[in-house]
Amino acid sequence: MPQRSVVPPGMEPLVERFRYSPGVLVDHTLYIAGMVGRRPDMTVVEEPEAQFAQALDNVGAVLAAAGGSFADVVEMETWFTDFRTHLPTFMRVKDRYFTTAPFPTWTGYGVVEFSTPGILCEIKCTAVLGATDA
């Protein structure tokens, strides 16, 4: 099957600097790379709730660039540097993005650190575009 790289406006530095695609579309399945609470200028959002919202906004940008939405997400994986502390806040933020059933599967992990200082969470999703239209 042919693959298409999905690079929303403003995420070009990820491809240029780190040489990876924010998303890869294969048929109707969109694989979204781990997104973090980083702005287009590559600075990290400091406040936890705002950082989680920025990370989900980044997921949403990849979805939109491929013609999808949060309703198309079938799987989500999250990694946290302080899982127990940040989980309640993350869940409140997440619920603003995932608003209708069926909700995606979700697996969360605790990790020691990320490659960029200040990152609290990383979110990776898989979406099947048009799955909710059936």
Account of the protein in words:
The structure is a single chain. This protein is of the alpha+beta class and 134 residues long. Helix content is 30%, strand content 28%. It has 3 helices and 6 strands. A 6-stranded mixed beta sheet has the order 1-2-3-6-4-5, with helices on one face. The longest helix is centred in the middle third of the chain and has 18 residues, at 48-65. It is globular.
Can you lay out the helices and strands and say which pair or pack?
Blueprint: E1 3-6, H1 12-18, E2 23-26, E3 29-36, H2 48-65, E4 73-80, H3 83-97, E5 105-110, E6 121-128
Parallel strand pairs: 4-5
Antiparallel strand pairs: 1-2, 2-3, 3-6, 4-6
Spans with pLDDT under 50 lasting ≥5 residues? none
Query: Strand share of the residues?
Result: 25-35%
> Structural class per helix/strand content?
alpha+beta
Task: Name the overall outline.
Answer: globular
Number of alpha- plus pi-helical segments: 3
From the structure above, extract its key features.
single chain, 134 residues, alpha+beta, six-stranded mixed β-sheet, 3 helices, globular
What is this entry, summarized?
By secondary structure, the protein is α+β, with helices and mostly antiparallel strands.
